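Q&A log
Question type: sequence-to-structure
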Amino acid sequence: MAPRQERTRHSTPPARGLARRSLLAGAVALGAAGAVGVTSGCSRVSTADAGDGGQLLEQLRAKGSVRLGLAGEQPFSYIGKDGRMTGAAPAIAQRVFRELGVEDVQPFPTEFGSLITGLNSLQFDTVAAGMYINPARCEQVIFADPEYQMLDAFLVRKGNPKNLRTYEDIAESGASMATGVGYAQIEYAKGAGIKKVTTLPDQLAGLLAVEQGRVDVFVGTAVTVRNVVKETRSTKAEATEEVTPTVDGKPVVDVGGFAFRTPETALRDAFNRELHKLKKSGELLEIMRPFGFTKDQMTTITAKEKCKP
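Response status: OK
Response body:
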């Protein structure tokens, strides 16, 4: 999900036409950038005792920068072929935080499964990775309202030889499935009766595993799956039509948004106000469109709705 880098003070245009080599280079760069981020001497200021987050927004304005927790997943947040942060979430962050008086948006790359831990340990100020909002995560962090809604899709061998179009198809056929570490699709698979799910670092690793026959299907968000096939120009794999997961027999439409530490309600609320302005004006879709999002991914669902058990 998101589920996954990189924009500095200067606006970086979305990466286009990435070759397979560029994607692989980006993955390497992500690891290197993550190492730098962990060892850098970033000042960490706790506001956990301030109820509403205290003066964090004022601190960010005074410092002139905000640190984004990112995970390498297209189209949410990733490293482009120029080595800079790009993706829908960083683009939104730059626009919103500029309106809040914070000009510099700094990447802090990490693994997706470490984002909430990193946020709560003050390694960065917000998670900007298109993270799905669900009750379990809402117990650990607070979310801004979602900027998108999303269904799933499958990466399969060209021609979809096992005819995999639903999670139940995977379970009934005994096909081998993989998805990303910490992805919501793991629970959807278990709920459909899939006994074993392999986890891989990202959608590129999933594509390679499918192409090489190591797994029959890699499951991810629809936009992510479509993008990796398109950007790598794969001739051995394809993306299926969108798949609607179910929980307890009920269809699920996932939504993703920015996460903040639980005490930081003042910062979250300020972020929300600017986000809703972008939604109302239609600018949010224009920011996200270059990364493969369409009007079908725009949503009026709130974080409060998705946090309900």
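Response note: The first strand starts at residue 65 and ends at 70.
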